[in-house]
């Protein structure tokens, strides 16, 4: 078990390194000159050159890359003398446009993204799995066909469209919800809930649709397994056969998906956060993209990748608890 | 051994099937099957795949797919089994009639320990605490000669060998002490030496419990070892029926002869009839 974990963490480290490398290449080497975008409108070639010096952009590629890597562990100083800017470890970049440590910027906005992700995950897991199981049990009925049509629509409709329709319906037309304004939970739980309800619904619709389809397929497949026949031959009741023997094998793969989907959302629900004016990690990235603030874009990419990698390890560990076959074969 | 007080006199057959006919929307799969099985006796139901032997067993268990329609009768201790409600069939299934399936690996749920799966069958009918049912499971595993049964109740199906898995299935079938055991090709998926062990075990179990047994197989060599009576089926119809001795020493039907000829024997003789080619390449 310990050996397995060490192996996984080592593999994760290598993947992380590769991710850092490729993001670094894409954002610092292939993108427009970051010095130019920092420099702004009143720019002179001398000033660009000074900024390039300060950012270390005149160094050879690998020196830049290792400086970047080292900064994660020991922090980094940009420039020298009076204009020095210090970025504490772990430093994944510094935004000269917002004059902020990128990691700090992400950490500040993470609670919003976590709130969105948790709420949406609860909603989509409950509704998606329930709809999928009912569809499988009632395979071929009107319920099944209707639910699957709805799910197809849920997957196909773009997020921003659903978000705008929902806002129009619930806020403008029916006036069931006030225009969402984000307040801390402790100030007004009701208002807090109202602000997050629509983002949750928008994200949950898309994911629930995918989960419903997957759950339905898994349950139908499991129903055809020989052990289900054995369970019936034992004289178990319908619900015991379905719940005890049918759902456990059907839902275990859902765990894998949930871990990765949830982690992806921690890296920000870019569109949803932007449409609903929530200042989460996604919105941070969106704003950075608009002004070509490369350290921020790159930082968010790295953190998102990190979240997915960690989630994968957690899911694999969880799988060993959930599936006895995995537990034995890898220990 | 048995705890069923309402059992009629021992002469009456445990299972009595009369003119059983099973029809699917696409055609008839069993057409007029009739046989009796008495206490402690084994009926071998033989035929190639598609002959309707498994459908016969599923009809007795009440496990046929919804689209199947059945006529005729199948009486268990005099009570009709066909057309009963699922709830009422459920009380009989696994308790008084138990079934052993072909492929023990896929027939056991990979997510639960074998002890749990056996105990579950026990609790479904006899109730009691989980711990008591687990002890029953260990007892049943011990009875089918699984070494260190008490220690292995907590193991998962994939941790057993094929033969041991089938022993687990047999333990599951035995745990409620049924009066009728249906084996649907229970030795087919096993290799030959294990097959012989399982057949010996089944014979021994039957000796011990005096349960009636319906043994379904396509393998005449297996039938010859275990059956008292034999029914040969083909395309849903019974082509021949008799005691095992009659069938093996003096087959009356050409198809039976062909089946026998297809069985490799050590004392093979030269002038057996040519095998009959089957219809439609089945």
Automatic annotation (TrEMBL), chain A:
InterPro entries: BPD_transp_1_N, MetI-like, MetI-like_sf
Annotated TM spans: 9-28, 112-137, 149-170, 190-208, 254-276, 296-319
Localization: Cell membrane
BP GO annotations: transmembrane transport
Primary localisation category: membrane
Keywords from the UniProt entry: Cell membrane, Membrane, Transmembrane, Transmembrane helix, Transport
Topological relation to the membrane, as annotated: Multi-pass membrane protein
Domain ABC transmembrane type-1, residue spans: 110-319
One GO location term (cellular component): plasma membrane
Domain of life of the source: Bacteria
The keyword Transport appears for this protein: yes
Protein family: Belongs to the binding-protein-dependent transport system permease family.
Protein name per Swiss-Prot or TrEMBL: Peptide/nickel transport system permease protein
Originating species: Brevibacterium aurantiacum
């Amino acid at each position: 078990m310990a050996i397995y974990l060490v192996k996984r963490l080592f593999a994760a480290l290598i993947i992380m390194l590769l991710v850092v490398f490729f993001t670094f290449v894409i954002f610092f080497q292939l993108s427009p000159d970051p010095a130019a975008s920092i420099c702004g409108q009143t720019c002179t070639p001398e000033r660009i050159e000074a900024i390039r010096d300060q950012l270390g952009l005149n160094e050879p590629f690998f020196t830049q890359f290792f400086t970047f890597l080292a900064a994660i562990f020991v922090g980094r100083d940009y420039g020298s003398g009076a204009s020095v800017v210090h970025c504490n470890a772990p430093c994944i970049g510094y935004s000269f446009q917002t004059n902020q440590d990128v990691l700090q910027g992400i950490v500040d906005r993470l609670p919003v993204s976590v709130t969105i992700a948790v709420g949406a995950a609860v909603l989509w897991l409950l509704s998606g799995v329930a709809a999928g199981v009912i569809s499988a049990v009632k395979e071929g009925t009107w319920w099944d066909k209707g639910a699957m049509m709805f799910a197809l629509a849920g997957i196909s409709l773009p997020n921003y469209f659903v978000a705008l329709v929902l806002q129009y319906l619930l806020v403008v037309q029916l006036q069931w919800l006030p225009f969402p304004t984000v307040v801390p939970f402790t100030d007004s739980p009701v208002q807090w809930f109202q602000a997050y309800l629509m983002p949750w619904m928008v994200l949950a619709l898309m994911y629930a649709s995918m989960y419903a389809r997957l759950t339905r397929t898994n349950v139908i497949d499991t129903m055809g397994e020989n052990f289900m026949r054995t369970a019936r031959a034992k004289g178990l009741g319908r619900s015991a056969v379905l719940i005890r023997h049918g759902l456990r094998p059907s839902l275990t793969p859902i765990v894998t998906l949930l871990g990765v989907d949830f982690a992806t959302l921690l890296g920000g629900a870019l569109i949803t956060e932007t449409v609903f004016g929530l200042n989460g990690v996604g919105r941070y990235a969106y704003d950075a993209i608009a002004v070509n603030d490369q350290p921020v874009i790159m930082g968010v990419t790295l953190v998102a990748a990190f979240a997915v990698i960690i989630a994968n390890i957690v899911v694999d560990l969880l799988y060993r608890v959930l599936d006895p076959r995995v537990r034995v074969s890898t220990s | 051994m048995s705890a069923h007080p309402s059992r009629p006199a021992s002469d009456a057959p445990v299972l009595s099937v009369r003119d059983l006919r099973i029809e699917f929307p696409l055609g008839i799969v069993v057409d007029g099957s009739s046989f009796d099985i008495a206490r402690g006796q084994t009926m071998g139901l033989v035929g190639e795949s598609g002959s309707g032997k498994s459908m016969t067993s599923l009809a007795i268990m009440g496990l046929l797919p919804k689209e199947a329609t059945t006529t005729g009768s199948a009486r268990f201790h005099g009570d009709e089994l066909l057309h009963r409600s699922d709830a009422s069939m459920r009380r009989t299934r696994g308790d008084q009639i138990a079934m052993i399936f072909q492929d023990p690996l896929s027939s056991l749920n990979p997510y639960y320990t074998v002890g749990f799966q056996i105990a579950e069958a026990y609790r479904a009918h006899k109730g009691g605490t989980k711990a008591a049912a687990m002890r029953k499971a260990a007892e049943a595993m011990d009875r089918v000669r699984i070494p260190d049964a008490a220690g292995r109740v907590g193991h998962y199906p994939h941790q057993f060998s094929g033969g041991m898995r089938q022993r687990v299935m047999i333990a599951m079938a035995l745990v409620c002490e049924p009066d009728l055991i249906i084996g649907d090709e229970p030795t087919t998926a096993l290799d030959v030496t294990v097959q012989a062990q399982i057949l010996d075990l089944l014979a021994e179990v039957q000796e011990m419990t005096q349960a009636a047994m319906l043994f379904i197989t396509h393998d005449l060599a297996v039938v010859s070892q275990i059956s008292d009576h034999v029914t040969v089926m083909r395309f849903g119809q019974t082509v021949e029926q008799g005691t095992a001795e009659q069938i093996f020493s003096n087959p009356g039907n050409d198809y039976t002869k062909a089946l026998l000829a297809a069985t490799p024997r050590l004392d093979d003789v030269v002038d057996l009839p040519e095998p009959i080619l089957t219809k439609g390449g089945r």
